[in-house]
UniProtKB/TrEMBL annotation:
Residues 174-306 form the Nudix hydrolase domain. This is Nudix hydrolase 6-like protein. The lineage of its organism: Eukaryota, Viridiplantae, Streptophyta, Embryophyta, Tracheophyta. PROSITE patterns: NUDIX, NUDIX_BOX. Belongs to the Nudix hydrolase family. Pfam families: NUDIX, Nudix_hydro. Keywords: Hydrolase, Metal-binding. It comes from Cynara cardunculus var. scolymus (Globe artichoke). InterPro entries: NUDIX_hydrolase-like_dom_sf, Nudix_hydrolase6-like, NUDIX_hydrolase_CS, NUDIX_hydrolase_dom, Pre-Nudix. It comes from the Eukaryota. CDD domains: NUDIX_ASFGF2_Nudt6 (cd04670). One of its GO terms (molecular function) is metal ion binding.
Length: 344
């Protein structure tokens, strides 16, 4: 009578990052009566055992391979997430600038996925810039919690705050900036105009040329431009004499008006027909003594400042060319600091 003992040895190996199951089998033919070992006996039974084990081995290997393939697919799905193209700033902000047409449903899905990812990344504010052609994306963006920030002629900007904290995104521009030009010639005459439109239309009031500073325009440059447009007079910037701030003046925005002194370099007036009814050189005193000017405190104060400058009673703010710490672009610092006096 023979008894066969099978001993199975299993090891795990790493091959290219994949675990491989290995096994071996050992058989012995043993005669308990005679006590002798007879290797080679019952070979048929041993072959059957080996065949059964190899079948199990192949099945186990295929199962491991399939599991690894499934795992890789899952990992790829996690790593590859479709999001909106965006740029990031130093304040954990995100800017999305969409220029091409996009289906609303696709946009909504991408927006939701993107916000989820940005939240995990610790981002805070989201700036969504939409060109005018993409107005169809405004409604789904608002449904996801975005709100209007500002609009320009070619785009609309919406914003979103990710953290559950108070929003610290800067508000839209709060002020409109304007200039009033005090152009004084060598005769002590000031350049004044009567407007053809607006609240001064038909009232016979002589006033300083005024206007709004354009985007990207310096205050000193704006004053020179406004005088040239309204009267045709060429000038050079001298200094800022004063500035006035008022609120709720233009669609609830505040207003800053800078009174700038200019030096004329031409004399002959060529008025702007579309906006200006009349233009002339007028003695400063006559301008300051107009009933309308005397009646309204802000106009009266500005007139007195101009007269004081005519008599050299104070020094205004000159434009000092400079650059900021974050940009090499030229800018101006307005100051009445007199360097030559401080160094003496």
């Amino acid at each position: 009578m023979y008894r066969f003992v099978f001993k199975k040895i299993r090891t795990n190996c790493i091959d290219g990052g994949r675990k491989i199951l290995q096994s071996s089998i050992c058989t012995t033919n043993f005669n308990p009566i005679c006590g002798d070992f007879r290797p080679g006996a019952a070979e048929g039974l041993r072959d059957k055992a080996r065949s059964a084990f190899q079948t199990r081995y192949r099945s186990s290997t295929n199962m491991v391979t399939n599991m690894e393939h499934s795992s890789k697919v899952s990992e790829n799905e996690v790593d590859h997430v479709d999001m909106l193209n965006a740029s990031y700033d130093a304040y954990e902000g995100v800017t999305v600038n969409i220029k091409n047409n996009m289906d609303e449903n696709v946009f909504t899905t991408l927006l939701q996925t993107s916000i989820s990812q940005w939240r995990q990344q610790g981002k805070k504010g989201v700036w969504l810039k939409l060109s005018l052609e993409l107005v169809n994306l405004v409604k789904p963006a608002v449904k996801e919690g975005f709100w209007y920030h500002h609009a320009e002629p070619t785009y609309l900007m919406l914003v979103y705050w990710i953290p559950e904290t108070n929003c610290t995104l800067p508000y839209n521009a709060s002020h409109r900036v304007g200039v009033a030009a005090f152009a004084l010639n060598s005769k002590g005459e000031v350049l004044v105009v009567q407007e053809k439109t607006g609240r001064f239309k038909g009232k016979g009031i002589w006033k300083l040329p005024t206007g709004v500073v354009e985007e990207g325009e310096d205050i000193c440059t704006a004053a020179i431009r406004e005088v040239k447009e309204e009267t045709g007079i060429d000038t050079e910037f001298v200094e800022v004499l004063a500035f006035r701030q008022c609120h709720k003046s233009f669609f609830s925005k505040s207003d800053l008006m800078f009174v700038c002194m200019l030096k004329p370099t031409s004399h002959d007036i060529e008025k702007q027909d579309s906006e200006i009814e009349a233009a002339q050189w007028m003695p400063v005193e006559e301008y300051a003594n107009q009933p309308f000017v005397k009646k309204h405190e802000s106009f009266d104060r500005i007139a007195k400042i101009c007269m004081g400058k005519k008599d050299d009673k104070f020094v205004g703010f000159t434009a000092l060319p400079t650059s900021t710490a974050t940009s090499a672009k030229k800018s101006y610092l307005y100051s009445n600091y007199q360097e030559h006096l401080s160094d003496s």
